[in-house]
Amino acid sequence: EGSFADLQLNEWVVGHLGSLGFNKPTPIQYNCIPPILKGKDCFGCSKTGSGKTAAFALPVLQKLSEDPYGVFCLVLTPTRELAYQIADQFAFIGKPINVRTCVVVGGMDMLKQAHQLQKKPHIVIATPGRLADLLRTNENNVKLNKIKFLVLDEADRLLDKMDGDFTEDLNVIFSALPKERCLQTLLFSATLTDTLNEVKELSTKNPFFWKSNNTVSTVDNLDQRYILLPEHIRDGYLVYICKDLLEKYPGHSIMIFTKTCKNCQILGMLLQKSGFDCVVLHSIMKQRHRLAALSKFKSSNTRLLVATDVAARGLDIPVVQVVINHNVPGLAKNYIHRVGRTARAGRGGLSITLVTQFDIHRVQSMEGHINTKLSEYEVDENEVLKILTKVNLMKRETELILEDQNFGEKRKINKDKALILEGKVSNG
Questions:
Q1: Distance CA 334, CA 310 (A)
Q2: Residue 392 CA, distance from chain mean position
Q3: I need a labelling partner for 201 at 20 to 30 A (CA). Which of 128, 187, 211, 387 fits?
Q4: How far is CA 132 from CA 142, 148, 174, 251, 319, in A?
């Protein structure tokens, strides 16, 4: 409880927030903003949709207004889309002080990004891979040695070696930053992992630590269902469920999660062939196509989004009524983040997980973790069987199209190139 005026924020900040319709801070904002303003390092842990970005953006912008220079703050985040979203929030909140932001992510022109950095923007929001590449080449003369704030958003994913392993890139970036005593470090995350606990223990600066009571659990008003089905008719079920739900609730938005980029592309094409207006979101897509897909879904111009787990974390998609898990995620925390796209801000929502006989033990372990039993979602299997042959045929067609296009080959070639350059693979 309380207001922004209680948090030692300047009048211009409180007034601007009021004009934007923000009068009450969320718990993570209320608890973390004062210690950050006092100069303490901060660990904030709270679930997606709880206002984490403003919890670090507000104090950073206030400090920037007192001593404006570039580069003042570096924000690192695991995904490109999240980087753009954070940049939008900084621009939105920082309008009265004409804040200059710069987004440094893969999929965009590297030289342009280097030029933007040379202009010394106040806030740089980056994914580790691209920023590390810019620092490695260093002919671009990128300087980060005077920054006051380092923010790790979705810190658990950035620091977890099992989740993409950013270790090498982070080491390059950290070595370009000022000494620790001159730098204020802010870590924010939706889940408190063992890795984050280790970082907390190792910190020499006695950071302020705040954790929401309900960080990783699924929300009460989410109706969590499963369908037990044979593997070979999974896609028939998916097409049938989408058709059934959109006929019953034409205004609903549905997010479908799957585990690989290739599968994501196949399902998107399959749903389009089945007559749905549908967009996909995965990391092999060019960045402008990813942003266009996200924009189309956010503005409700299309009701179906098929995505890999890239889209499950942190993205600001305001209302999703249904989440469908095309596969059972390997980790309970990934399930929590996926289904966390629906039933937000007190609204109801539905999640449906497609489960084969090979997934049952995984589902049971997940149920133990979230302390909730999934209920069965009733489907008329005869209706599914009517469309099954057609669906399987269309799926085979999409797989052949992708094979012809050498889908994903470019990424493999780039990976091999990098290994050759590092001397890890003999060329020939």
A1: 10
A2: 32
A3: 128
A4: 10, 19, 10, 43, 35
Q: Residue 335: give its domain's CATH number.
A: 3.40.50.300
Angle at Cα 250 formed by Cα 394 and Cα 318, nearest 5°?
Answer: 100
CA distance linking residue 297 with residue 309, whole number of Å? 16
State whether residue 48 is helix, strand or coil: coil
Task: Give me the sheet containing 149-153, strands edge to edge.
Answer: 101-104, 123-126, 73-76, 149-153, 184-189, 42-45, 208-211
Separation CA 393–CA 398 (nearest Å): 9
Tokens representing 188?
Answer: 């924010």
Q: Are the beta carbons of 240 and 367 closer than 8 angstroms?
A: no
Tokens of 245: 């739900």
Bridge partner list, 74: 124, 150
What's the pLDDT tens digit per position in 299-328?
Answer: 889 999 999 987 656 576 767 899 999 999
**For 110-140, b where at least 16 C-beta lie within 10 A, e where not — what string?**
eeebbebbeeebbbbbbbbbbbbbbbeeeeb
Rounded CA-CA distance 294/313 in Å is 13
Whether omega before 103 lies within 30 degrees of 0, making that bond cis, reads no
Identify whether 353 is part of a domain: yes
Helices of type H across 215-343: 234-248, 261-273, 287-298, 332-339
Domain termination residue (choose one: 167, 189, 211):
211
State both tokens at 247.
């006929």
Instruction: Answer whether 43's CB lies under 8 Å from 207's CB.
Output: yes
Q: Domain boundary residue among 211, 235, 265?
A: 211
Q: Is the dihedral of CA 408, 255, 279, 385 positive or negative?
A: positive
Number of residues in the chain: 428
Is the distance from CB of 80 to CB of 290 less than 8 angstroms?
yes
Q: Is residue 420 part of a domain?
A: no
pTM over 0.85: no
State which residues form the domain around 173. Answer: 4-211
> What digits encode the pLDDT tens for the residues 91-140?
999 999 999 999 999 888 888 998 899 899 999 999 999 999 999 886 55
What is the CA angle 294-155-148, rounded to 5? 100
Domain count, the chain: 2
